[in-house]
Design a protein that fits this description.
alpha/beta, FAD/NAD(P)-binding domain, six-stranded mixed sheet, 30 helices, 18% strand, HdrA-like, FAD-dependent oxidoreductase, iron, oxidoreductase, 4Fe-4S
C-alpha cells in the first residue's frame, strides 16, 4: 500500500447519488467545507448512472427545483427529445454545482474503513485512483443507499423481508433511442444481495444477459448502466422509525424534515412471501398504486448508537413495508438536503447532529423550500380524507373513527372502500366498537359481489380477528371466485385472497381447500399464498392433518415446471423455484415430516452461486446455509485461486482468459462493472490489425465479437463488446469479481493474500500468483489529461468526412479540441473532446466542457439540427492515445490490438506449474 495521505473537511458525504449530491450541495451552501466521495466515475447515482432519468411520484420543493431548471437548460443545448430529464445533462449540472461551491469531489473512490473515536464517527479511509486517503470530518453523511458506513461502524440494520431476507428486485438498465426519444428499458433483472461481492458480480452478468435478449430481439442500445439498480438494502435502526400507521394515516411528526409522496412500490410479484400487511394491501385490496403522503422525521436519519453520523437516502429508519414508499428520487433529494443542512447547522452550533435544535433545522428547511410552514402546523393527515358521501371533507384517524362506524360501513364497496376498511379495522380493534360487528356480518350475505362490499366487510372482520367471515371465505374458495377488488396484476382473485384472510385469523378451516388447490398446481404466485397459509396454521393442526398437509406439499414439489411460470416487472420470466422449494422445505421441517427432503433442499442452497438464495435458506431453515444477512461486518475470505489478474482492460481480460484456458483457476479483479474498458467505458472503438490467429484466446475473442455483432472489421460496438466479453470469460472458466479494488497484498507461505476494498469494506482472496494489470490500463489509476467521448444520435445518418472515418481536430474559441468520428451505426457518431493541460486534474473537467463543445458545433453547423448528445462516456481515453492535433496520426487504430498482444505476453510469462 502506498503512503496514506490525509485531508480535512467540515462535512464528508459518502455516496454521490440521488441523496448524496444534494446533501453535499446543501451543506456547502450553508457554509461548510465539503468533501464528496463517489465510487463511480460520475455523479448522480440512479438518475445519471443507473439509467432511471424520470421522476416517479415524490414531492416537489428544495434544491431539486433549481437543479432541474439547470438540467433543462443544458439538455436544450444537447438537443433531442428525452424520456423524463436528460441524464447526462443532470450529470454535468451536478458536477458544475460542486465546482462552483468549492466541494472537493473524489470520484472512482471507495471507502473501506470508518474511523471511530470516543465522540463518534470521525471520518473514513478510502481508496482513490491515486492511492489510499484518510478523510476526517466534523460530520459524516452516509448516502451510499445501503448504509455501508453505518454497517462498517457497527450500527444495526434490518435486512430484507422478515420471511427470508430477500430484497426488492434490482434492475440493470440499457439505454436506447426509441421513436426519436432518448430513453431506457426499465425491466427487472432478478434478486441480489448488495452486501455480497460475488452476488453483486453475478447480478451484473445476469443483468447483461437480459440486455443480450433485448439485442437479439432487435433493440439498439447505445450504453448500459455502470451500476445496478438496487431498490433496497438494509434499513438503519434510527432514533425515530416510520411505522405503518404513520404512513397510512399521514400522522404529523413534530420533527418532520421532509414530506414524501408515493405508493408502496414493491416490485415483487411473489406477494405471498411478503408481510401480512403487504399481502392485505397489495394482493387482497389491490392498492399497489395508491399514492400516500408521509412525514419523514429527523430521527429517521440518525443511526442509533453512532454520533456525528447522518444517513440520507433510502436506508433511513422505517419499517420495511413503509420503505417501499419513501425511496423515490424527489423524496431522496429532500432527505439529502435536510441531512446536509443539519450537518452544517450542527457544526455552527458546536453540537452533534443528534443534539441539534429541531426547530432551528425546520426553520431553515422552510426557508429553503424543502418544507412548507403548514407542514409544521398541521394536526391531521391527507391520506384518509373522504371525497364523497356522508364523511366528505372529513379527515379521520384510527383513534376517532369508531364514532363514525356506521357511516364508514356505508363506504364499503365504493371507490373509497380502502379508507373505511383501514379505519374500521384499526379503530374498532382499539376501542371495542361491538356495534359494528353485526352490521359488517350482515353485509356478507346478499351483496352484489361485483361491487366488493361483502368482501370488504370480510376484510374488516378479519382485521378485527372475528370468525364471522370464515364460512363466506370458504365458499369463495370452493367456487374459485375470480372477482378482484382491482384490475392491477398484483391483485389476486377472491378465492386466493380468502386464504390471506384465513391466515390473518389463524383459522385451520381452509386446510382441505388448500390441499385441493395445491394439487391443482395453481402457479408460482398463487402457490406462495397457499404455502404461507399452511405455514401459519401448522401449529394448530392435528397429527393427521399435518401429515395430510405435508403429503400435499411433497406432491406439489414434484410438479413439472415448478416456479417456471413466474414473471418479474416488465413480464420477464425468472424462475421462482428456489423460493418455493425453500418455503416447502421449511414447512416440511416444521411439520416433522420427511426431514431428509427438506435437508437436501437446504444443503443444496449452501453451494448455490446466488447469495440471496443462501440468505433465504439461512432465514427459513436456520443453520442450513451461510448467508451474509444479520451479521456483523468482518473481513470475509472470498475464495482461493491459482492466479488473480488485476484490471478489466483488454490486456487484463485477454491475460485472464489465456490463463483460464490453460486450466488455471483464475479470478479477474475488476475495479468497476465493465470489461474491455477501453471500449466499453472510454469508447476507443477502432479495432484493426488483429485477426483470428493460432492463439486460442485471441481466436475465441474474435469469434465472439463477430458472433455478437460487435465488430464490423473496423469498429467495435461498446454494448455488444461487453456482452461478448462476458461470454469470453465464462467460456474460459474465469471468475470475475466486479467493483473490487486492490488495497494491498502480502505473501503467506507459497501464496499471495490480496486485500480488496469494496463498497462493503475490506475482503480477502488468496492466489498462488498475483498478476498486475497487463498493458498498464484498466485498473484503478490516477486521472490524466485525455480525451472524453460523447455519443451523438440523430434521426438521419451523419455525414462522413472525406477520408470516410475521421474529421480533423478542431480548435475552438474556448481552446477545446473537438473531432467527430462515425459510430457503429449510421445514425450515431462520436464526439471526442480534449481540454487544456491546466484544466486537467479536476474531478469533472471533461464533462463540464460538453455543453460548450456541443454548442460550438451547433453554431458552426458541423452537426445536423436533429443531432442530440445521448451519453457521455464513463472515463477518459488512456493517456497519450489521442496523438497530436493535426498530426494525422490515429494511434487508436492499433491500440486494442496492442493491448491484446500485451495481455498474451503477460500470460505467457507465467509458468504452467
Amino acid at each position: 500500500m502506498s503512503q496514506l495521505h490525509a485531508v480535512q473537511a467540515d462535512v464528508l458525504v459518502v455516496g454521490g447519488g440521488t441523496a448524496g449530491c444534494v446533501a453535499a450541495i446543501a451543506a456547502a451552501e450553508e457554509g461548510a467545507r465539503v468533501i464528496l466521495v463517489e465510487s463511480d466515475t460520475a455523479l448522480g447515482g440512479v438518475a445519471t448512472r443507473g439509467g432511471i432519468h424520470r421522476y416517479y411520484y415524490g414531492s416537489p420543493g428544495g434544491l431539486q427545483e433549481g437543479i432541474d431548471r439547470r438540467t433543462a437548460e443544458a439538455a436544450a443545448v444537447f438537443g433531442g427529445k428525452t424520456k423524463g430529464f436528460h441524464p447526462d445533462a443532470k450529470r454535468v449540472v451536478l458536477a458544475a454545482l460542486c465546482r462552483e461551491l468549492g466541494i472537493g469531489v473524489w470520484l472512482d473512490s471507495v471507502v473501506y474503513e470508518v474511523i471511530k473515536e470516543a465522540d463518534g464517527v470521525a471520518g473514513v479511509l478510502l481508496l482513490t485512483p491515486a492511492g489510499p486517503l484518510e478523510v476526517r470530518a466534523g460530520v459524516t453523511i452516509d448516502s451510499t443507499g445501503n448504509a455501508h458506513l453505518v454497517r462498517m461502524a457497527g450500527g444495526k440494520l434490518r435486512h430484507g423481508r422478515q420471511l427470508d431476507g430477500i430484497y426488492h428486485n434490482y434492475s440493470f438498465i440499457p439505454r436506447r433511442v426509441l421513436d426519436g426519444e432518448i430513453g431506457y428499458d426499465n425491466l427487472d433483472a432478478g434478486w441480489v444481495d448488495p452486501y455480497d461481492p460475488w452476488d453483486v458480480s453475478r447480478a451484473f452478468i445476469r443483468g447483461r444477459e437480459w440486455v443480450r435478449q433485448g439485442v437479439e430481439q432487435g433493440a439498439r442500445y447505445f450504453a448500459v448502466s455502470s451500476m445496478l439498480g438496487v431498490r433496497e438494502g438494509g434499513l438503519i435502526e434510527g432514533d425515530a422509525t416510520i411505522v405503518l400507521r404513520d404512513y397510512i394515516e399521514d400522522r404529523p411528526s413534530p420533527e418532520v424534515i421532509a414530506r414524501s409522496y408515493s405508493h408502496l412500490d414493491n416490485h415483487g410479484f411473489d406477494t405471498g412471501n411478503e408481510s401480512e400487511f403487504s399481502q392485505l394491501w397489495i394482493a387482497v385490496m389491490g392498492l399497489f398504486v395508491k399514492g400516500l403522503w408521509c412525514d419523514i422525521p429527523y430521527g429517521a436519519l440518525l443511526p442509533k448508537g453512532l454520533e456525528r453520523l447522518l444517513v440520507a437516502g433510502r436506508a433511513l429508519s422505517a419499517e420495511r413495508d413503509v420503505s417501499m414508499g419513501i425511496r423515490m428520487q424527489k423524496d431522496m433529494h429532500k432527505t439529502g438536503e435536510a441531512a446536509g443542512v443539519a450537518a452544517a447547522l450542527s457544526l455552527k452550533a458546536d453540537c452533534t447532529p443528534r443534539q441539534l435544535d429541531r426547530s432551528l433545522l425546520q426553520k431553515r428547511l422552510v426557508e429553503r423550500g424543502v418544507l412548507e410552514q403548514e407542514d409544521l402546523q398541521r394536526s391531521t393527515g391527507r391520506n384518509l380524507r373522504f371525497r364523497q358521501g356522508d364523511l366528505a371533507g372529513l379527515e379521520l384517524d384510527g383513534d376517532k373513527a369508531v364514532r363514525y362506524s356506521e357511516q364508514l360501513a356505508g363506504y364499503l364497496g365504493t371507490e373509497e372502500s380502502w379508507k373505511a376498511v383501514w379505519l374500521l379495522g384499526r379503530s374498532s380493534a382499539a376501542a371495542g366498537g361491538p356495534e359494528i360487528i353485526p352490521l359488517l356480518a350482515g353485509k356478507l350475505e346478499g351483496e352484489d359481489e361485483a361491487a366488493g362490499g361483502a368482501f370488504c366487510s370480510a376484510i374488516t372482520l378479519a382485521m378485527l380477528g372475528r370468525e364471522e367471515p370464515v364460512p363466506y371465505l370458504l365458499g369463495l374458495i370452493a367456487a374459485r371466485d375470480s372477482n378482484k377488488l382491482s384490475n392491477h396484476p398484483k391483485c389476486v382473485p377472491f378465492w386466493v385472497a380468502s386464504f390471506v384472510l384465513l391466515r390473518m385469523l389463524r383459522s385451520p378451516a381452509g386446510l382441505k381447500e388448500a390441499v385441493i388447490a395445491l394439487a391443482e398446481q395453481p402457479g408460482a404466485v398463487h402457490s406462495t399464498f397457499l404455502l404461507d397459509y399452511l405455514s401459519s396454521v401448522l401449529r394448530l393442526l392435528s397429527r393427521e392433518q399435518r401429515a395430510e398437509a405435508a403429503a400435499a406439499v411433497k406432491a406439489w414439489l414434484g410438479s413439472a415446471g415448478l416456479g417456471e411460470d413466474y414473471r418479474m416487472h416488465g413480464d420477464r420470466p425468472e424462475s421462482l423455484r428456489w423460493s418455493l422449494e425453500l418455503r416447502a422445505a421449511a414447512f416440511l421441517s416444521q411439520a416433522g415430516e420427511d426431514d431428509k427432503l427438506s435437508m437436501n433442499i437446504a444443503a443444496a442452497s449452501v453451494s448455490d452461486s446466488r447469495g440471496y438464495v443462501r440468505n433465504a435458506a439461512a432465514r427459513l431453515i436456520p443453520g442450513s446455509a451461510a448467508g451474509t444477512l444479520d451479521k456483523e461486518p468482518a473481513v470475509p475470505l472470498l475464495g482461493t485461486f491459482d492466479l488473480a489478474v488485476i484490471g478489466a482492460g483488454t490486456a487484463a481480460v485477454i491475460c485472464a482468459a489465456a490463463l483460464g484456458l490453460r486450466g488455471k483457476r483464475v479470478v479477474l479483479l475488476a475495479p468497476g462493472s465493465a470489461l474491455l474498458t477501453e471500449v466499453t467505458r472510454c469508447r476507443v472503438t477502432a479495432f484493426q490489425g488483429a485477426a483470428e490467429q493460432e492463439d486460442h484466446a485471441v481466436s475465441r475473442l474474435i469469434r465472439l465479437l463477430r458472433r455478437e455483432g460487435a465488430w464490423n472489421g473496423a469498429q467495435l460496438e461498446p454494448v455488444r463488446t461487453q456482452l461478448a466479453a462476458d461470454r469470453f470469460l465464462e467460456e474460459a472458466g474465469v471468475s470475475a469479481l466486479y467493483e473490487a479494488r486492490t488495497l494491498r497484498s502480502w505473501k503467506e507461505g507459497e501464496r499471495q493474500a490480496v486485500e480488496l476494498a469494496t463498497k462493503n469494506g475490506r475482503c480477502i482472496i488468496y492466489a498462488g500468483e498475483l498478476v498486475p494489470a497487463a498493458g498498464g490500463y484498466g485498473s484503478t489509476r490516477p486521472a490524466a489529461p485525455g480525451t472524453l467521448t460523447a455519443v451523438l444520435t440523430c434521426t438521419e445518418p451523419f455525414g462522413q468526412e472525406a477520408d470516410g472515418r475521421w474529421s480533423p481536430w478542431l480548435w475552438t474559441a474556448s481552446r477545446l479540441l473537438l473531432r467527430l468520428r462515425p459510430g457503429y451505426y449510421p445514425e450515431e457518431a462520436y464526439l471526442d473532446i480534449r481540454w487544456p493541460e491546466e484544466a486537467a486534474g479536476t474531478a469533472a473537467s471533461g464533462e463540464l466542457l460538453m455543453v460548450p463543445a456541443v454548442g460550438e458545433l451547433r453554431r458552426q453547423g458541423r452537426i445536423p439540427d436533429t443531432a442530440a448528445l445521448a451519453y457521455i462516456a464513463d472515463d477518459v481515453w488512456p493517456e497519450g492515445l489521442s496523438g497530436e492535433a493535426g498530426s494525422g496520426l490515429n494511434p487508436e487504430d492499433t491500440f486494442i490490438a496492442d493491448q491484446i498482444t500485451a495481455g498474451l505476453a503477460a500470460a505467457a510469462r507465467l509458468p504452467d506449474h
